[in-house]
Specification:
This protein is α+β, with helices and mostly antiparallel strands. It has one domain. 34% of the residues lie in helices and 20% in strands. Helix 2 crosses helix 3 and helix 7 packs antiparallel against helix 8. The chain is globular.
Length: 221
């Protein structure tokens, strides 16, 4: 039973459900699923403008992947029953995982499911704001680096809010999608698969990327 508990708990800590949206412009972003955990891949320029330390850390990378999770569980080298239970019921806090992603997004994450979401200017700006606001900031407005990330050129940062069985990594993704204007109810969280399955079923066709209000259009992967 002890061996099964982390697997059972992973299912409990990974859920969000999504419902319909209509893409209105050609500012695409990516939602990526690594099996049980989802996150966002967005053009680096705009989020780096909001958080200059990301520019200092990652330089001219075209994209950055962001995920949110429990501070202990997410950064752990080895997942244990104790870490899993603490994440679910008495989390010490949260962390943001940021990863530099090359131009060939789908090639870089060849073993992960990726969905494209098309946003207009205001929706895109809202999502960037949501991600930026997920970083803890000092009174001077600086983000706090923690340890290096778990794959690629990556870094953990101190996050805001607290992880729990009712406030999971995938619920964070759902909140971001809701902030960006999607008709999604994060409270009714299910699995990472429910988010990706819905987005793939919609099969949104993004128009040719345009330049809007100074936002950088995503190049095709």
């Amino acid at each position: 039973m002890k061996a099964l508990l982390p697997l059972i708990s992973l299912s409990l800590i990974t859920a969000c459900a999504a419902r319909g949206y209509t893409p209105t412009q050609s500012q695409p972003i990516y939602v990526v699923s690594h099996g049980w955990h989802t996150g966002f891949i967005v053009p680096a320029d705009n989020i780096q403008a909001r958080i200059p330390r990301l520019k200092a850390r990652f330089g001219a990378t075209p994209f950055i992947e962001f995920g949110w999770g429990d501070k202990g569980f997410y950064q752990a080298q080895e997942i244990t029953t104790g870490l899993t239970l603490r994440a679910l019921f008495w989390s010490p806090g949260s962390t943001i995982h940021a990863v530099a992603v090359p131009e060939n997004v789908r090639g870089y994450f060849a073993n992960s499911a990726i969905a494209t979401v098309c946003l207009n200017d205001s929706e895109y700006a809202a999502l960037i704001g949501f991600i930026a606001d997920s970083f803890y900031k000092t009174p001077q407005g600086e983000v706090l680096e923690l340890r290096r990330g778990i794959y690629g050129d990556s870094q953990f940062y101190e996050g805001v809010s607290r992880y729990s069985i009712f406030n999971t990594c995938n619920k964070w993704t759902a909140k971001g999608l809701q902030q960006a204007g999607l008709d999604i109810i994060p409270t009714f969280s299910l699995t990472a698969g429910s988010i990706m399955g819905y987005l793939q079923e919609q099969n949104p066709t993004c128009p040719t990327p345009l330049q809007h209000s100074g936002l950088q259009a995503l190049p095709k992967p």
